[in-house]
Each structure stands twice: as C-alpha cells, then as structure tokens.
Amino acid sequence: MMAMTAMKYVQSLIWLTMLGAAVLAQAPAVEKVEPPNWWAGHSVGTVRLLVRGSGFRDAAVRSANPELTVANVRVNGTGTYVFFDVRIAPAARAGKYRFELTADGGKVQVPFEISPLAKAPQTITNDDVIYLIMTDRFADGDASNNKNVDRSNPRMWHGGDLRGVINNLGYIKELGATAIWLTPWYDNADEVTTCDKPWCPMASYHGYGAIDYYSVENHFGTMADLTELVQKANSMGIKVIQDQVANHVGFRHPWMKQAPLDNWFTPFKQNKFNNSSLLSPNASPADVENTLKGWFDFSLPDLDQTEPEVARYEIQNALWWIGMTGISGIRQDTIQYMPRKFIRDWTAAINKQYPGFYMVGEVFEEDSAQTAFFQGGKTGWDGVDTGLPSVFDFKLWRSSQEVFTGKKPARALRDVLKYDGLYPDIGRVTVLANNHDTDRFMSLDGATRDGAKLHTAFVMATRGIPQLYYGEEVLMTGGHEPANRGDMAKFERSSRTTDEQEMFDWTRRWVATRRQHPAMRNGQTIDVLYNDSVYAFRRVTAAEDLLFIINSSERPQSVSFDRTEINAVNIGCYFDILIDLKTGMSPGGRCPDAGSSKVEFALEPRSITAVKFENLSVLRAR
C-alpha cells in the first residue's frame, strides 16, 4: 500500500513538473525583422534575416513557399534573437510572405516582403560637385516633427528636416551643386541626455548615434519623405549621398539591453586613437587592436566586424538603403576604425550589385600616406585591397586653409600635391572645402572674404571631386563643434549682405566653370611655379590645357613663363575661363606677342588667374 502511494506521489510530481514547464515556456513573439524586405534577382540571392523578439529558444523556422528557402537557423543564448538564411528564387514574385517560427512555447509568424528590384541609380562621378548638409540645421519644412526643438541650444534639435531640404532644392540647383550629402538619417534616440558637463543637455540631432538601422529619424520625416527627396532631387539633376555609420551605434540602441550575440560589440575600452598603427606594418598588435576595437566614448558602442554575423548585417544594410531609396553614393563614417578586410568585403558586395558605385570613406588624417592606404586599387602590405573608390583629402584641405589664411606660403599646396602618386587613383579623391567636424573658414584666425574665395576656387580647380559645406558659400561663421553647425538662413538674395552675395556668386561661377571644362574635372595636374607667394599649375587632358595662377600674398606679383612650360608655343592668345553669370560665358581674352618666348601675367593681390590658350581665329569664334 505504501509502495502504491509513493508511486502515485512520484507520478504526480512528474505531471506537475511537465505542466509547470508547459506553463513557463514563453510563447514566441516577434518585435522586429531586419531586413524587412529584399529583392529577387539581386546579387545577394541569399539574405540573412535577424529577428528580434522573445521565446525563441530551440526555434525552428520553415517556409511554406518553395520560392523562399530557409537554412542555417541560429538562436542566441537568451532566445531573444534568431538568425536565418532565406534563399530567394530569381523568379520569386514581389509580394508579402511569412515564415513560421516554432519554439517550445508555440508558433509565431515572421513577416517578410519581396520588393520589385529598381534599376541601378546614377552614381557620383568627377563631373559632380557635392554639397554637405546637416539636415537638422538646414531648413525646417515640417513643424509637426519638431519634438524637443530648442534653437537657443546648439546641442539640441533645431527642426531641420527632409521636407526642408526638398523645399530648398532650387537653392542648391542655383548654386550649381549636383549632389547633396546628408548627415545620417537613421533613427536616433528622442531622449535628451542630461549630465553635469558643459555639453549637456544634448540630443542626437547629428544622427551618428543610431538606435535603428532600418528606420528614418522621426525628427526628419518618414521613408516616404526620403524617397520623395531622392526622386525630386534626381529630377533636378541632383544626386543624393547617404552618410552611413557601420562602426558604432548609439548607447540607447536596443542591442545595448540585449545584444544579438555576446561578441556583437567589442568589450568597452577607451580608444587611444593611435591611428598611425593602422598604417604601419611594424605596429604592435595591442595598438592595432585598441584602435580598431576601442570605443570613441561610452555613448558610441563599437560593433565588432570580425564577427561574421555583424559584417553580414552591415553589408546587407548598406545594400538595402541603396535599393530602397535610389541614393547615388555612400559616405562611410570613421571607416579606418573598422578592419580593412571588412571594408574590402563591404565595397565588393556593393560593387557587385551596383558596379562603379561611389563610396567615400572618412579617414580623418592629415597624412597623405595614411589616407592613400585606405583607397582601393592597390594591395597593401597586409594583403588587402579595400576596393574603396574614394577617401577625403584632409591634408590638402588643411593646407589650403593655412595658405589662404596667411599661415603658410603658397608652395605648401604643391607640397601636398607632390604625394599624389601614393594614391591608387588620385582623380577619384574627394576634396573637401570644409565639413561639420571642423571650424568654418570664416572663423579661422586670419580669415578674410578674399581668402575664403581663394580657398573655394582652389578646391574647384584642383584634382578630385569637390565637396562644399552648407553655408560656406554665404560666409557663415562658427568655430569648434557645435558652433560650426549653425542654422542656414541665407536662401534668398535679399537676406544676404554685399560680401555674402559676392561669395555666393563667386562659388556659382567656379562651379559653372568647372562644369564647362573637362580638364578641371579629369585633367592631369602639372606644376609650373611654386614659391612663397605664387602657385601655378596646369590641368591637362588630350583635348584641353588650362593654366591656374594663385597669388596668395597681399602684394601684386608679376610672373613670366616660357611658352614651353605652359604649352603655348605658337599660340598667341588666351582667355579667362571664369564664367560670367549674366552671359553664361567666359570674358574676353588677350593676345600678347606670339613671337616672344615668354608670357607675362600681372597678378592682383590675393587673386587667382585661370586661362586657356587659343589662337586668334579660335578666340574670335567664341
């Protein structure tokens, strides 16, 4: 009798345990699917989904549609994320689909969509002039999204949005820029950061602290606003560049509460920014690891691209934005802090789907060797060719500022350009006039209107793809960040001073002149003269030969060139190439003594002369 009772007791315990397990097993729930959609016929025929939710322990995923095949299911240790491959048949039809996820606590549907594959967008070329816009500071076109706006605080939201950019495309068209680079439009946290430091309170108005790689920042608008912007800009001959940030996210990202994998982020260690260790084959492994895996600070968690799941996620995300919006280029933030093998794989994947696509990496170094090391087209000492089409030329930017604020002699420009041979493709380098991380030109010590004009002219005349920064064309001021990110307010001629209008017209003239002369866009650079006051150089193609002479000094200069130096033998005349805005043409020319072996130029103080030599018959035909 006692044995029978004991047996029933044990059976009851087993039954209760099983019942408790069934009750405790959490029903699976889906919160987010990344990417939410993909394309049939894409170069990435098997896309890897990352699903966030709960109750995914021991999950299995199946597809009821033979055109979508599921494989390689992986659940993280806490059952909050599941990865799985989806092979998309090339003939799969566009539409909405669902996968069935089964776990201990039940079943749940995972939504997914196949979208129509749009044609490849036009990309950025040397024919373009890029105009950098900080979206929050450009123009407020939709007051309904102005949450936590405080224009009196330079670190808070100021109300600029995508609608504001759309409303002012005519201004950009008038200036002549053919591409706009917008600072990141990923969704950032709405919360305002408070602290006892001078920089608080502050908001993520800049866009570099993503909390969702697949959503548009709500202060800027919606995905519909973004696609409208791209389409309207394209219809006006203006391309759009996205600012992507694969190196890090914001500290309020949901991944910080529960990461998809234990090694999704690198362990926190402050980055010492020993950036030269990335260039040197002699650097210590510890220095390299800290530079690649150290965090900028606590608020920017560093993603670990050596984890294949992270790398694949970020490559797919870049491709997703191109496919969804039709952007024409990508600026990749802080690119040198990611492994060069990842950069290679990232660029290769984009080029496979979009051959020749413009990608420019921010390697913020005033060292030509370091920036050249990251441009693609040459295998480095580490056996890696990044394939990256373009990098910013920070060394030339700095030297131009120093020359045209009187801190360095004119020859300093040539002292940078003499290292052009370090770059695999110098013609594709992006030459910035300024950006959102640097002091505006007019707030530099020694800055003048004439100096700003020469700086802009040189950026337009030198090799590479020029990039302007919003407001510099109307002499905006602003020192260290965030003062350099002021609100744009000079869209109308009536709002500008005489000096501001002169700078605006000057910028327009140089943009228009560059558009008319292939040698300015694609020509070889040939040095003619360089000393303390003057730098003269030619830009040459098979069909065109241009001469630029810069006098950076406060005094008039007279220079004389042998005709052989400037390819003007038996060519009697030359004309100024700088466009007249009223006529849309260059002004008249001069015909010095063609029999002389030399050509002389009288240079005004703080000036640039830009000419093309032609015979009188050609000049008259103009």
Query: What is the tally of helical segments?
Result: 15
Strand content: 15-25%
Q: What integer value in Å does the Rg equal?
A: 29 Å
Mean pLDDT: 94
Distance between the termini: 119 Å
Secondary structural class: alpha/beta
Helix content: 25-40%
Overall body shape:
elongated
Q: Can you count the beta strands?
A: 26
Which regions contain 5 or more consecutive residues with pLDDT less than 50? 1-7, 13-23
Biggest pleated-sheet summary: 8 strands, parallel
Order of adjacent strands in the largest pleated sheet: 16-15-14-13-10-9-18-17
Structure characterization notes:
With 622 residues, the chain is of the alpha/beta class. The chain contains 15 helices and 26 strands. It has an 8-stranded parallel beta sheet. The longest helix is centred in the first third of the chain and has 23 residues, at 2-24. The protein is elongated, with a radius of gyration of 29 Å. The N and C termini lie far apart (119 Å).
Short characterization:
This protein is α/β, with parallel strands linked by helices.
